[in-house]
């Protein structure tokens, strides 16, 4: 595991400047990692208080768990429900929604939306026109090289895990039309587009001849200060910019692995589920919000994946836990502050059956977790004209490296529930955990004169 994912000291080869040069040379690279432990040892987290590395996936999964169908995601369902796409929303009299804020939000998405339907959020065919695969001196070196490249291209977090078909969609959506640039955000980016043919295909038919063995999971931080304004166009700007960063990194990583002779396919939000892949790759725990919860960033980052045929012979990162779920049992900041009441207030995570969610096909049963109602959340996005993010803003783990937060991290796994509750309350006393204007009634205006208020009514 790369220690900057969790701040867990590891015995993975240090990739300092001198090591970077050595990694490029096969003989020296072998020597560099000769004393290195297996991936399992490298990721054990020894020496770090309260962080536990797991051999197996650390979340209970029902034996009858079925792969999720992309057709049932909230965004696709919204199109079939006739929910309008997010409308342009700016108001010079409302802080966080002034025209420059909105312009910044749109600009931040430039890379993401310009490539939205050109591959990274759609089916991206693995190319066959590749050189003979390069043979790495060892899986340890390949592992280190991949992380070196991802960080050089801009990733804040990188984890590597084996492909696990449970987390790939059973069917993937294939949009045959293209929506580029700014129009994508407001005319169908990521959703069923009226007038454009969309169809689903089984994973293997969608990507014939592609047989990935490894999934590289990357994360890009969202700016703390910008996110404290959520929900606003400023908070949207940092989320959009993280997606643009992920898109750029994936494009570079795909080329990198293709240049080495390995078919690779990038995905931001399509082809499968980011969060369980992120858990498996050691990027964090699953929290009450239903998001990936990293040791350093909390949930203040966005995630994407790269599938590749490169095999790493089990030299993978390990899942880690550091007491997040126990903390969530006693901290309800995100649930209490969610304007759409989409986040569960249940004491403990639970496992829904298919019967439990038969009227909510956008939920993924068979996993022990707190189930967030994604449809309520998305309806609020449309109402507010933003991608909200208030839940992440209110989370005590969201903060930068202030000493009292790191103290909470260190003590977290050893303290009982009441202490967790006290720590969550202290976060409020320190002035954190507030959202910008969550209760403000959404008032919509757009240049075409359409009004989208009252969606919930
Ligand atoms: S993004 Fe907003 S509406 Fe959605 S779950 Fe978080 S707080 Fe609730
Ligand atoms: S706000 Fe509290 S309950 Fe919600 S994810 Fe963060 S720690 Fe858990």
What does this structure look like?
The chain has one domain (3-320, 351-371). 36% of the residues lie in helices and 11% in strands. The chain is built from 20 helices and twelve strands. It has a four-stranded antiparallel beta sheet, sandwiched between helices. It has a two-stranded antiparallel sheet with strand order 1-10. β7 (285-286) and β8 form a beta hairpin. α6 (99-108) packs parallel to α13 and α15 crosses α20 (417-429). Residues 287-289, 327-328, 331-334, 394-397 line the site of one iron/sulfur cluster.
Distinctive features:
20 helices; binds iron/sulfur cluster; disordered C terminus; 457 residues; two-stranded antiparallel ribbon; alpha+beta; 4-stranded antiparallel β-sheet
Helix fraction, binned, reads 25-40%
Discrete helix count? 20
Whole-number total of structural domains: 1
Total DSSP E strands: 12
Structural class: alpha+beta
Q: Multimeric state of these chains? A: single chain
> Approximately what portion of the residues adopt beta-strand conformation?
5-15%
Characterize the largest beta sheet: strand count, sense, and whether it forms a barrel. 4 strands, antiparallel
What is the C-alpha radius of gyration, as a whole number of Å? 22 Å
Shape: globular
Which molecules are bound besides the chains?
Answer: iron/sulfur cluster
What is the rounded distance between the termini?
48 Å
Mean pLDDT: 79
Q: Which sequence of strands runs across the widest sheet? A: 2-5-9-6
Q: Which regions are unreliable across 5 or more consecutive residues at pLDDT < 50? A: 7-14, 34-47, 177-197, 436-457
């Amino acid at each position: 595991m790369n220690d900057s994912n969790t701040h867990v000291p590891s015995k993975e080869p240090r990739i300092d400047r001198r090591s970077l040069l050595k990694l490029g040379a096969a003989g020296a690279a072998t020597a560099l990692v000769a004393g290195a432990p297996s991936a399992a040892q490298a990721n054990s987290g020894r020496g770090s208080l309260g962080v536990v590395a797991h051999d197996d996936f650390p979340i209970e999964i029902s034996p009858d768990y079925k792969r999720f169908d992309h057709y049932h995601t909230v965004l696709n369902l919204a199109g079939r429900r006739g929910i309008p796409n997010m409308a342009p929303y700016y108001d010079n009299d409302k802080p966080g929604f002034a025209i420059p804020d909105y312009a910044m939000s749109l600009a931040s998405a430039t890379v993401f939306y310009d490539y939205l339907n050109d591959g990274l959020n759609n089916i991206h065919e693995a190319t066959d026109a590749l050189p003979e695969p390069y043979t790495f001196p060892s899986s340890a070196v390949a592992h280190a090289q991949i992380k070196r490249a991802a960080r050089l291209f801009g990733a804040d977090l990188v984890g590597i895990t084996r492909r696990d078909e449970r987390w790939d969609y059973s069917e993937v959506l294939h949009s045959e039309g293209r929506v580029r640039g700014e129009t994508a955000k407001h005319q169908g980016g990521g959703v069923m587009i009226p007038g454009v043919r969309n169809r689903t295909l089984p994973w293997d038919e969608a990507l014939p001849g592609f047989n990935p063995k490894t999934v590289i999971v990357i994360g890009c931080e969202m700016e703390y200060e910008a996110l404290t304004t959520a929900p606003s166009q400023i908070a949207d700007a940092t989320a959009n910019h993280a997606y643009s960063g992920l898109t750029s990194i994936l494009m570079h990583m795909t080329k990198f692995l293709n240049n080495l002779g390995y078919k690779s396919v990038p995905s931001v939000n399509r082809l499968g589920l980011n969060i369980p892949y992120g858990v498996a790759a050691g990027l964090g725990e699953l929290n009450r919000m239903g998001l990936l919860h990293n040791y350093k960033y909390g949930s203040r980052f966005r995630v994407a994946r790269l599938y590749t045929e490169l095999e790493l012979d089990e030299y993978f990162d390990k899942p880690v836990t550091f007491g997040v779920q126990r903390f969530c049992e006693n901290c309800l900041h995100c649930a209490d502050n969610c304007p759409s009441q989409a986040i569960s207030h249940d004491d403990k995570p639970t496992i829904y059956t298919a019967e439990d969610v038969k009227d909510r096909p956008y939920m993924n049963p068979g996993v022990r977790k707190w189930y967030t109602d994604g449809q309520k959340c998305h309806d609020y996005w449309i109402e507010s004209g933003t991608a909200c993010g208030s839940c992440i803003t209110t989370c005590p783990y969201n903060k930068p490296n202030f000493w009292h937060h790191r103290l909470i991290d260190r003590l977290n796994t050893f303290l009982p529930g009441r202490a967790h509750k006290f720590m969550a309350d202290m976060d409020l006393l320190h002035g954190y955990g507030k959202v910008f204007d969550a209760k403000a009634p959404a008032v919509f205006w757009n240049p075409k004169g359409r009004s989208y208020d009252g969606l919930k009514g």
